[in-house]
Amino acid sequence: MSMHNEIKLTPEALAACLERLAMIKQWVEAVAEEGLRRVTSDGESVPRHKLVHGKKGARKFEDKVEAEKMLKAARLKVDEMYSRTLMTPTMLEKKLKKRVKLWNKLLPLIVQPDGKPSLAHETDKRAAVVTEAAFEDVTEQDFGDLI
Questions:
Q1: For the chain, how long is the longest CA-to-CA vector?
Q2: In Å, what is the CA distance from 84 to each residue of 3, 25, 89?
Q3: How far apart are CA 14 and CA 144, in angstroms?
Q4: pLDDT tens, the chain, 147 aa long
Q5: Which distant-in-sequence residues (6+ apart) come within 8 Å of 69 by Cβ?
Q6: What DSSP character marks residue 110?
Q7: Are 126 and 116 in contact (CB under 8 A)?
Q8: Considering the entire predicted model, what is its pTM?
């Protein structure tokens, strides 16, 4: 099933599936971990599967000192070799523990975007997100009597 196929479920059936989602995710993760364990630790092979490298990590210098020497020898300017960036709010919060007044002045400049919407059980403590679909379409209505 692709991501674009619509699943035909009643609202009750969808709710029942969503309530079991955590259990299903745990099971899927456990199957993946067991397959990896068997191949890497036990030396087993799993039919129709193979061990591959995942997404590569970030590139970095194995020897920063040697890389720095090479860049200096090539007469690169300091601003061509180094980047200077502002610390994140989290980093600054830790550094400014004793400078409460400065931290309080910075607070209005800090933003934190909302997380990606996801479905949660109604007992979840987070507030519900109101979407455009929840509003009645009034584009075709005549509001002349209100003006």
A1: 79
A2: 41, 41, 16
A3: 42
A4: 555 678 889 999 999 999 999 899 999 999 999 999 999 888 888 899 988 888 888 999 999 999 999 999 999 999 899 998 999 999 999 999 899 999 999 999 999 988 887 777 788 898 888 777 656 666 666 666 665
A5: none
A6: -
A7: no
A8: 0.52
CA distances for 120 relative to 16, 88, 112, angstroms: 12, 30, 21
Determine what percent of the chain falls in helix, strand and coil, rounding each to the nearest 5.
45, 0, 55
φ, ψ for residue 106, nearest 5 deg: -75, -30
Q: How far apart are CA 102 and CA 110, in angstroms?
A: 13
The residue whose two tokens read 């007044």 is: 101
Cα separation, 122 vs 19, whole angstroms:
10
Opening angle at CA 53, ends 24 and 3, nearest 5: 40
